[in-house]
């Protein structure tokens, strides 16, 4: 198990709190639990898809919550109160509950989610506000200078 101490960086930096808040949980994740397995793919210039393998879970047993820059996917199997509960000789399909968290970058929004063939697909879209997008500034010649943002 690898551990990294970031405390020397805290003493010598100012204004990087958000970066350290993202690094701390990633480095402190000692669970090492890979359940459920997942993929993160880039499907376009500003679109992404997270796919989780949630075989055996129904739509009602899954919950997706996006809060600030954290996406949380939770799965909780419904309790079965059946008198004829199966007697397993071998049980290789996990039926345990889970909670998987993903840190989202600024301006990334959840577009939707679908469940098909045991795979939960969560589609994400990065929407950068207009004021944060790069813009071209024209260089004027002396005597014809215009204020930035002035209509032509």
SSE layout and pairings?
Blueprint: H1 7-12, H2 17-27, E1 38-42, E2 47-53, E3 62-67, E4 70-75, E5 98-103, E6 108-116, E7 119-126
Family: Belongs to the small heat shock protein (HSP20) family.
Protein name: Hsp20 family protein
Domain SHSP: 29-142
Molecular structure report:
Residues 29-142 form the SHSP domain. InterPro entries: A-crystallin/Hsp20_dom, ACD_IbpA/B, HSP20-like_chaperone. This protein is mostly beta strands and 152 residues long. It has two domains: 1-31, no CATH class; 33-80 and 89-132, Immunoglobulin-like, CATH 2.60.40.790. Helix content is 11%, strand content 31%. It has two helices and seven strands, in the order H-H-E-E-E-E-E-E-E. The longest helix is centred in the first third of the chain and has 11 residues, at 17-27. The radius of gyration is 23 Å and the shape is elongated. The termini are far apart. The mean pLDDT is 81.
Relevant terms:
152 residues, mainly beta, Immunoglobulin-like, 4-stranded antiparallel sheet, 3-stranded antiparallel sheet, elongated
Please report the first level of CATH classification, the CATH class of the largest domain. Mainly Beta
Cα(first) to Cα(last) distance is: 61 Å
Rg, nearest Å: 23 Å
Structural class label: mainly beta
On the 0 to 100 scale, the average pLDDT is 81
Main pleated sheet: 4 strands, antiparallel
Content of β-strand: 25-35%
How do the SSEs run, as a string of H and E? HHEEEEEEE
